[in-house]
């Protein structure tokens, strides 16, 4: 029986409980329906910088006080920023739930953004950007998204650009919080040993100083495709070939996720077997499907020695083309088993459980129970996989590449290989 419950407070704040009575802990957090794609391009990186700054002190607590409040009871606290969401969450013993909700509410509603902390954190984020730029398999994803969604906030780097972060003002951070950290965009969610009525009461008690909701939409995703090549003095060449995927709310989403698993989601996948095991062309190769509220991305990443590029690209394109009419029932069942297992294993982590619920609520508008998710996976058949593969691979490709690229064939040649 699904015991997940959702309530909406008078101010519009949603409260979600996912009780698991057999554990001694609870994961609780605040999810905000805002991320990089809601930014003004002139302030790229503000979502991530705000996330950092909410840990830097409130009207009654210093940054150290916030950390000690949770760690003194043995808990842990973390956060993340994505393209469509920002999350702040705590994992601790069930008896300390009230403390966690109060601390989270304090951070979200009463952060003071001390100027000296802004300057210190600005330096931290600039170092984080530098580290990303020095990590090829991070940088290539930033370059890929900027190409796939050219000129759009959805494609902008989550960390922001160094010159913009260097000039980010306290007023910009304050304005962003006022505009987007509003109750209608937020959900307080908990998974673990939690009672719904108690969680609602805590949310009502502590989340009482949120600003009024504002009307702030996001620009519709406009997939452009294209090419980005960045020559760098590296040992390996890194290639990311991608296509337009499927939004989160479509039933075809589950077929797209299964396709990514079948094509490049494990050691038994087609790409791993053909490209690495049979030909020895790469150490790392995989495919992925990332979905958003109104679009998605399906990509294939590979890293290889520069001398192997001429052999790598044709094989990858061949594997994409060979999908039509060649998917066996055994192969599909293996991919679905991986999907089911990954979903069910995630249910053993309270943080994973509640993150899944929060994303579904804020991005899909509804939360499926785990049985419904498994049913959706089970319903994927060969026809659904072939339909979604045709849809994805007929879209204009996006190519991002970095490293020594002299032997990487031209973009038009790759397009023709895919269309052959």
Notable traits:
420 residues; alpha+beta; Cytochrome Bc1 Complex, Chain A, domain 1; 2 domains; six-stranded mixed β-sheet; five-stranded mixed β-sheet; 16 helices; 18% strand; globular
Report on the architecture of this protein.
It is a single chain. With 420 residues, the protein is an alpha+beta fold. It has 2 domains: 5-206, Cytochrome Bc1 Complex, Chain A, domain 1 (2-Layer Sandwich), CATH 3.30.830; 226-419, 2-Layer Sandwich (Cytochrome Bc1 Complex, Chain A, domain 1), CATH 3.30.830. It contains 16 helices and 11 strands. A 6-stranded mixed β-sheet has the order 1-2-6-3-5-4, with helices on both faces. Strands 7-11-8-10-9 form a 5-stranded mixed β-sheet, sandwiched between helices. Strand 4 and strand 5 (86-93) form a beta hairpin. Helix 3 packs parallel to helix 8, helix 9 packs across helix 12 and helix 10 (270-278) packs antiparallel against helix 11 (309-322). The chain is globular.
Topology:
Layout (H helix, E strand, L loop, with lengths): L4 E4 L5 E6 L5 E8 L13 H8 L9 H9 L4 E6 L4 E8 L3 H14 L4 H19 L2 H13 L13 H6 L2 H11 L5 E7 L3 H11 L19 E6 L5 E8 L7 H13 L5 H9 L5 E8 L4 E9 L4 H14 L6 H18 L3 H15 L5 H9 L3 H12 L4 E6 L7 H9 L1
Parallel strand pairs: 2-6, 7-11
Antiparallel strand pairs: 1-2, 3-5, 3-6, 4-5, 8-10, 8-11, 9-10
Helix pairs in contact: 1-7, 3-8, 9-12, 9-15, 10-11, 11-16, 12-14
């Amino acid at each position: 029986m699904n015991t997940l419950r959702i309530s909406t407070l008078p101010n519009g704040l949603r409260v979600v409980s996912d009780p698991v009575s057999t554990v001694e802990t609870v994961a609780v957090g605040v999810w905000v329906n805002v991320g990089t794609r809601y930014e003004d391009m002139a302030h790229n990186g503000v979502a991530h910088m705000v996330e950092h700054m909410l840990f830097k002190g409130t009207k009654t607590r210093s940054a150290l006080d916030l950390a000690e409040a949770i760690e003194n009871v043995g808990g842990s606290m973390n956060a993340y920023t994505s393209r469509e969401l920002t999350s702040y969450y705590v994992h601790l013993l069930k008896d300390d739930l009230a403390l966690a909700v109060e601390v989270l509410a304090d951070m979200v509603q009463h952060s003071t953004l001390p100027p000296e902390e802004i300057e210190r954190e600005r330096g931290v984020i600039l170092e984080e950007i530098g580290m990303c730029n020095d990590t090829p398999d991070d940088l290539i994803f930033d370059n890929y998204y900027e190409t796939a969604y050219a000129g759009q906030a959805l494609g902008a780097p989550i960390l922001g650009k160094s010159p913009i972060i260097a000039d980010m003002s306290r007023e910009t951070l304050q304005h962003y919080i006022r505009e987007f950290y509003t109750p209608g965009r937020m959900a307080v969610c908990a998974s673990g040993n939690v009672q719904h009525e108690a969680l609602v009461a805590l949310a009502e008690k502590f989340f009482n100083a949120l600003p009024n909701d504002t009307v702030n939409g996001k620009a519709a995703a406009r997939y452009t495709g294209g090419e980005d090549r960045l020559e760098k003095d590296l040992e390996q060449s890194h290639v990311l070939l991608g296509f337009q995927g499927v939004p989160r709310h479509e039933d075809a989403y589950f077929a797209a996720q299964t396709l990514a698993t079948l094509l490049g989601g494990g050691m038994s996948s087609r790409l791993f077997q053909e490209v690495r095991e049979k030909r020895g062309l790469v150490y790392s190769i995989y495919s992925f499907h990332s979905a958003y509220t109104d679009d998605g991305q399906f990509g294939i990443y590979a890293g290889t020695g520069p001398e192997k590029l001429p052999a790598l690209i044709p094989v990858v394109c061949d594997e994409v083309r060979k999908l039509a009419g060649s998917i066996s029932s055994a192969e599909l069942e293996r991919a679905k088993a991986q999907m089911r297992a990954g979903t069910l294993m995630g249910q053993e982590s309270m943080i994973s459980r509640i993150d899944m619920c929060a994303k579904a609520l804020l991005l899909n508008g509804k939360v499926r129970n785990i049985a419904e998710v498994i049913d959706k996976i089970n319903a994927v058949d060969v026809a659904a996989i072939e339909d979604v593969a045709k849809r994805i691979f007929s879209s204009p490709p996006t190519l991002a590449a970095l490293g020594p690229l002299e032997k990487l064939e031209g973009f038009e040649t790759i397009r023709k290989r895919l269309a052959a």
